[in-house]
Amino acid sequence: MVPPCPNFTLDYAFSRKVVPVLKSKEGKELREKTFVVGMLVNNRSDLAPDVQQIITEYGSDIISRFGVPSSDKKNGLIILIMQEEAAVQGLTNQLQEFEDLQIKIVQFE
Q1: Among 19, 65, 70, 98, who pairs with 75 as Cys (CB 3.0-4.6 Å)?
Q2: What is the pLDDT of residue 69?
Q3: Cα angle 22, 28, 34; round to 5
Q4: How far is CA 100 from CA 41, 42, 46, 105, in A?
Q5: Reduced to 3 states, what is the DSSP secondary structure of residue 31?
């Protein structure tokens, strides 16, 4: 952790990469919104390459990613943590073209 400034401190969050996180004196992160984007990928073997390509385009906006295949490997659940609303909208708009993909967004403020 770097030395504190009068108004905020700089801390780090770890996922696949180190992400700087600004916090107020009280320890609250200065970003106001966090989004959880959940995707249920049906027919995984057909959709996975195209879905992965779109997710990769937003790689710098994704804080964390978690994926779980179904026991029969035919379907999969992908969960993304993001903070930029415009990136969430862009990602989900592109992914909505796939009929076998269910998308849910949860927003925390």
Answers
A1: 70
A2: 92
A3: 80
A4: 6, 5, 10, 17
A5: coil
**Are 64 and 108 a contacting pair, CB within 8 Å?**
no
Give the pLDDT score at 36: 95
Taking residue 96's Cβ as centre, other Cβ atoms within 10 Å add up to 10
Question: Do residue 40 and residue 3 come from a single domain?
Answer: no
Return the C-alpha torsion angle 92, 79, 48, 84, nearest 10.
40
Domain that holds residue 79: 34-108
Q: Answer yes or no: do 23 and 47 share one domain.
A: no
Work out how many domains the chain is built from and give that number: 2
Q: Which residue has the higher pLDDT, 12 or 88?
A: 88
The Cα–Cα gap between 74 and 46 comes to 9
For the entire predicted model, the pTM comes to 0.71
